[in-house]
Structures are given as C-alpha cells and as structure tokens.
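Hi R.,

As promised, here are both runs. First protein below:
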Amino acid sequence: MTDTSSPHDRGGPDRGTGWNVVTAPPVTTLLLRHGDTPLSPQKRFSGVSEVGLSADGVAQARAAARRLAERGGISAVLSSPLRRARQTAEIVADGLGGCPVAVDDDLRETDFGAWEGLTFEEVRAAWPDEAAAWSSDPAVAPPGGESFADTLTRLQRVRARVVDRLPAGTVLLVSHVGAIKTLVVMALQAPLASMHRMFLDSACLSEIDWFRDGTAVVRAFNDTAHLRDAACDCASRGREIGNARR
C-alpha cells in the first residue's frame, strides 16, 4: 500500500528547522490557551483566580476539540490546575475520545497578587511605580505575586518533564497566556521581556517541536482557524500590546 501521509504526519525530515539534520523525531507540544471567562472581555488580571469558562469560552473549547480531533495523534493531555484550563482540557479530552487529563501544577498562570481582578488601568492608578517597573523588568513581581522570571523557572520544569521523560509524539498542554508565552520564549531563546510583544487569543493553538539535542522549532503561534465557524463571538477582545496579564 502506498503511504499517502505527509512527512509532517510521519514525524519525518521536515520536522526540523530546514537546516539541521533530524536524527530522531521530536516531542511536539500543542499549546492551547483556555477559552474565554467572564473576566476576559473586561481585560482583568486573572492569574491564579479561580474563574470558570463563560458560554463563549465553552463554545471556543468545543471548537478547539473538533480541530484537535481532526488533527489526531495526541498521546497525552496535560492541564493547568486552574478551573478555566481544566474545563477546556476536559472538553477537548472528551472530543478526543475520553483521553485522560493529567494536571500539572506548574502549568498554572502567573500569580498577579494584589492585582488579581483589576484592570491594568486600575493597577496603574493605584501602583504607578510598581506597574511601570513590572512592565519593563520580568524579574519584578506584582505586590504579593509572582514575576515572569519565577514563571520561567516553573515552565523549565514542565519542559524537562515533557521533553526529557516522554517518548516522541504529540502532547497537548492546556494553559494560560503567561505560561504559553514563556514556553515560546524558551523555544526561541528570546529575551523574556519579548513576551510583552506577543498576543494570544482565547482558545488559540501554538505548536513547538522539542528535539533531544536541545533544538526547538516554533511551528505555529496564535492559530485561531478553528474559531472562525464557532457559534460564538470568538473575536479577540481588546487587542492591546502585551496581554500577558489576562
């Protein structure tokens, strides 16, 4: 029988950068941001706050589930412990035929401390100096919260667990803006502050190949093609620079 699958489907040579010689298939991480919550349209900090999906968020998660079921090949689903991510992961897992969802605490969103539940405008009004420092230095944490540098340390542990311990294949990670951007920064070996120049829609997909030799390839970022026909308003709400706070 003729093999009609593409090299991409088989984990073939095109999984590299186009320059390097691939000697072993990678671990591929599909990175899914959770769907909308009631706070998303209001652009409020919702780091470790326990807020669930809105009706739009559920519809977005179902659209992502259909997209991922059509793609196939997912061997494991890992989720942040936060409710909005777990709900999204469970909807997708059901669409994959009941794939079990494992919770990884290090996939949680950045803790925004005293800023949880506030808009950035409210934060700047109450903490002007702290907000300016936070915006310019990833090592600065909100009052009582966590810096993006701290988030990076957590996501380095996730990468080690997924890439170094799992067999080659495709793993779905359901997480948040801060965590997903951090993984992209790691893959690109970019400065951590570059995450402020990235935008992620609700329920978007990104994709990274991680090779055993340490090479990483970002194959997709903020892919929302599956949301175009979803029965909800899946347009991004408030496209402002640096939505890591959402």
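And here is the second one, sequence first, then its structure tokens:
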Amino acid sequence: MLLLSEQNDNGVLRLTLNDSSRRNALSEQMLDTLQTTLEAAASNPEVRVIVLAATGPAFCAGHDLKEITQARQHDDAGRAFFTRLMGHCATVMQAIVNHPKPVIAEVTGIATAAGCQLVASCDLAYAGPEARFATPGVHIGLFCSTPMVAMSRNVSNKAAMEMLLTGDMLSAEEAMQHGLINRVIAAEELTAYTMEMAAKIASKSSMTLATGKKAFYAQREMPLAEAYAYTSEIMVENMLKQDAKEGINAFVEKRTPHWQDQ
C-alpha cells in the first residue's frame, strides 16, 4: 500500500507515504493516491487536521527518475508524460494549499526536489534533527522550477536561490532558520509532538480554521490595501458565524466553547 491512512478520535488523519523502496517518490501512482485521499478528506467532517508523514530513510525524494527515464522511450521523447506529470504534481501541491483542513508535515530523513516542495506546500512542518532538505536538480541538469514555486513562498529569495542554484543539502536546523520548517524536534519525540500540535489545532472550530487558511493564502498575493479590504470583509462574515458568537460568549462567560463548525 503506497499510502497508509489512520484517523484518531481527535479528528486527526495521519497519512504515511509508504513506498520506501523508491524513497517515497512522487510517482504517478503516488500522486494519484495522494490526490484521491486529499479530496476525500476535504469533504469528510470527521477529519479536522491532516498529518503527512513517511516510512523509511526518506520523507520524499521527489519525482521517480526511473519512471521519467522510461518515458523517454516514447515517440515524443516523453513530452506528453512529462507534461502530465508536472501538471498532476502541481494539482496535488495546490490541493494541499487550498485544502480546507490544516496539513502538517512530519519530516524524517531527506526531502529533496518535489519532496522539498511537498514540505513547503504544507501549512506547518516539524522535523527530526536528522532531516535534510534540498532542491538538487542542478546536479543532473534539471532546474527545480516547480519546487521553486513553493520554496519561494516559504523562505527568503536569497535562501531559495542559494538552494536552487547550488543544490546543496540543508540541515534541519538550517531549514528552520530559513522558515522552511517550524521546529526541530528530537527524533524520539517527533511523532508525539506533531500529533499533539495536530490535536490542539483540531480542537478549534473547523469553520474558523477553513476560513482563516483560505484567507491567509489569498491575501498574501494581494497589494496591501486590497489585502486589508479583503480580510476586513472576511472578518465581518466570520463574526456573523455561529461559532464566532459561541466563542465570544464562552470567553465572556469563562467557559469552554462548544463548536458547531458553522
């Protein structure tokens, strides 16, 4: 099974990439499986937060280079396959960003090329001290142009360009300093910490989380005045929701709110 799925009572769906023999590469089949699973989770009210983890020594090594090499044998030298693969990968990355539920990456081992893109596309990311990150396409004559989209939206321009131009591997600490991941956690504590953070987020109103996540990614692409106009409107609509009324009343009355997720 390429993707292991487990959901707990807190509403946390844990998805584990499980193709360690191929270093959890984003093959066509893996992308298909991820997309289908993410789509199902989006409409499942029992899922409140998603954790994306992996088995084996690699979180995700990017695209399957053997699959890419095989496609070169086609009459078009692989053009149709490459076009389909890049489009499919972009769809999955955008599905994570546009997903109504928060998505958290739990990274052990290496995350390279499209695997690094996968980490950057998640809303939060926690990593063990042995985790390593790189966009190493330049080593094989292939600039990591699509990973660059997610990378440049997470780290500074200079840091992103250094990774892209050199292909050098970053340590977990360096990745944290650059803003690619949130925190480095001791290996033996990583899963417990990630799941604790997921449970904390899952305890909030799912309506509020979905509203805020969508607004966050929308406003950051806008000019300042447009961003304030947009988020002001979002705040007004949010204030009129049942959970906002309940949350404010609970705060004033010094009690725990009871969310209806609406």
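A quick note on the second one: The first strand starts at residue 3 and ends at 7. Let me know what you think.

Best,
J.
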